[in-house]
Design brief:
By secondary structure, the protein is α+β, with helices and mostly antiparallel strands. It folds into two domains: 141 residues, PAS domain (Beta-Lactamase), CATH 3.30.450.20; 177 residues, Alpha-Beta Plaits, CATH 3.30.70.270. It is 39% helix and 23% strand. The protein has twelve helices and eleven strands. Helix 9 runs antiparallel to helix 10 and helix 10 runs antiparallel to helix 11. The radius of gyration is 22 Å and the shape is elongated.
Length: 328
């Protein structure tokens, strides 16, 4: 079916989107390009036939890079929170919507053009022709990343010299100051928190074999993925080199381990931009521990570092937490 015909059907489906049924093709595309949410349309074969301006801004991909590809092998590579592929495993939300005709809402992670994982909230609506037959699906999605993107906050971090220039997350000074604050809250109010000490596996060969630019790309991809995949009230800083510290607040033991596993799985599912993606697989090792009432900064970090070492020694791409470990 031609794009023009599909756009007519999109307009017919506008009630589902809260729009106006009288929109013509041109009006729809103009309107869709003004939305803050990303919108793309697939036909029954899940071939992407439309990609709006917000979708370009959220994903980093240009329209001409995406239109014509299929959702089951396209550049966005949707995965769930465990890092498992949705489309290639037969769990594609668009396929379900096309098959059942039911509207579906779900949170998932897409692949940004820069390589990192980005959490998005999606709403998929079936698209029907005049006879009521399903001809495809419309996906509306928005970035729900917890990464610090507000320009005022970034400006404040820069003013206080707390921003890491390469990754644009907090630097070691930021992480240390937040860690001291959380230890003080634990002592005074009993507010529990945990830390995740993360290290990129086999980082030295990235620089030695592919050059420092690829090494920087690796650090940026991992940093953005970790920052995007923690909760909004958690904190992430670059500790130094290829190490990152995540401070996970208001957390129980099982939650801390689950978040650590999510970060590990998300990094493993990342791809580097450009040619390097064909040769480099990204993984991290993680040491996870809850802060204790008798901890100071030194004892807490020493324990997390020891657990990280156990993950490295145990084969890497793993989480070790106070004697409990998990592997990919």
């Amino acid at each position: 079916m031609a794009l023009k015909e599909h756009m007519h059907l999109v307009c017919q489906s506008a009630r589902e989107l809260g729009g106006l049924i009288t929109l013509d093709d041109r009006q729809f595309t103009v309107m869709a390009d003004q939305l803050f949410d990303g919108v793309y349309i697939v036909d029954r074969d899940r071939r992407i036939i439309y990609f709006n301006r917000a979708a370009e801004q959220i994903t980093g991909f240009r329209r001409d890079e995406v239109v014509g590809t299929s959702c089951w092998n396209n550049v966005l590579v949707h995965v769930d929170e465990g890092g498992r592929s949705l489309c290639s495993d037969g769990r594609c939300p668009a396929l379900r919507v096309i098959t059942t005709g039911e509207v579906e809402e779900t949170d998932l992670f897409l692949q940004h053009r820069d390589g990192h994982r980005l959490p998005v909230r999606t709403r998929l609506v079936p698209m029907r022709d005049a006879s009521g037959q399903i001809t495809g699906a419309i996906e509306i999605f928005r970035d729900i990343s917890s990464q610090i993107t507000d320009q005022d906050k970034i400006a404040e971090l820069e003013r206080l010299s707390l921003l890491d220039a390469l990754t644009e997350i907090g630097n070691r000074r930021f992480a240390e100051s937040q860690l001291r604050a959380k230890l003080d809250e634990l002592e005074r109010y009993g507010h529990r928190f945990g830390v995740l000490f993360c290290d990129i596996d086999r980082f030295k060969p990235y620089n030695d074999d592919f050059g420092h630019q690829v090494g920087d790309d690796v650090i940026q991809v991992v940093a953005r993925t970790i920052a995007a995949c923690v909760r909004p009230f958690d904190l992430v800083g670059r500790w130094g080199g290829d190490e990152f510290l995540a401070i996970i607040t208001q957390v129980e033991r099982w939650q801390l381990y689950a978040i650590a596993e999510r970060l590990r799985a998300m990094v493993q599912s990342c791809r580097l931009p450009g040619e390097a993606q064909k040769q480099i697989g990204l993984t991290i090792s993680v040491g996870a521990t809850l802060a204790r009432p008798d901890d100071d900064q030194a004892s807490l970090l020493e324990r997390a570092d020891r657990l990280l070492y156990l993950s490295k020694r145990g084969g890497m791409n793993r989480v070790t937490m106070d004697g409990e470990s998990g592997s990919a």
